[in-house]
Amino acid sequence: MANVDANELAKFSELAHRWWDTESEFKPLHQINPLRLNWIDGLSPIQGKQVLDVGCGGGILADAMARKGATVLGIDLATKSLRVAELHAMEAGTENVSYQEIAVEALAAQRPAAFDVVTCMEMLEHVPDPASVVRALGQLVKPGGWVFMSTLNRNFKSFMLAIVGAEYVLRMLPKGTHEYARFIRPSELAQMCRDAGLEPQTSKGLTYNPLTQRYKLGSDTDVNYLLACRRPL
Fold first, then answer.
1. Which residue numbers in the chain have pLDDT < 70?
2. What digits encode the pLDDT tens for the residues 57-101?
3. 36 is in an annotated binding site
4. Closest-CA residue to 203 (of 144, 148, 139, 123)
5. Where do the annotations place S-adenosyl-L-methionine binding (predicted)?
């Protein structure tokens, strides 16, 4: 069986037409995109690299990485989101980006060690078996290559801020966007990476200030966090 939750796919498919509306439910992704792009590019410059974006959705990060000079493949299982990504690339004239509807585990079997950089952002908390995804990421990246992930920590603070605060109080996200039980502690994700043959290198926390309505990267990994790993040579 595919490592996918049909309800999660349906949820994002219903919103697919709003991916590139910067004032829509996807506004937070547009706001954090420059932060995560610069963090990725700072650790592993992507110009001229073969890059894979897993769980690409409507292509917000994939498109930005292609514009940074990478050759990017975005994959997802939400058909409508991929069509939106393809349409945006065509309308915006973005070169060197393509999209494919395929599970990451299937792509890993087809194209092992094919990519210099692999990204998987805001996806692991939406799949039944995140460890399976991480194993596939480790298979897809070349020896010496980088894997970048982001997800949500699991603790009382993250429940209050990411679910109660973001979904019910500030209404930054639709209610039901996240399921607390699927949040992943940094120690758990790091162990998944080591089990997949990846070596954790560094992490960053992503925080939001509701007064300034700005995000920033820092040391606070209590809620949202990013993890960078390398596959040993």
1. 1
2. 999 999 999 999 999 999 999 999 999 999 999 999 999 999 999
3. yes
4. 148
5. 36, 55, 76, 121
Residue with tokens 């894997």, as numbered in its chain: 147
Written as one letter, the residue type at 40 is I
The reply, when asked if residue 90 is annotated as ligand binding, is: no
Question: What is the model's pLDDT at position 134?
Answer: 98
Query: Is 121 known to sit in a ligand binding site?
Result: yes
Residue 172 assigned as binding residue = no
Q: Name the maximum alpha-carbon separation found in the chain.
A: 47
Distance separating alpha carbons of residues 111 and 139, to the nearest angstrom: 9
Q: Which of 81, 84, 151, 139 is nearest to 109 (CA)?
A: 139
What are the tokens at 15? 């919103």
Give this prediction's pTM: 0.93
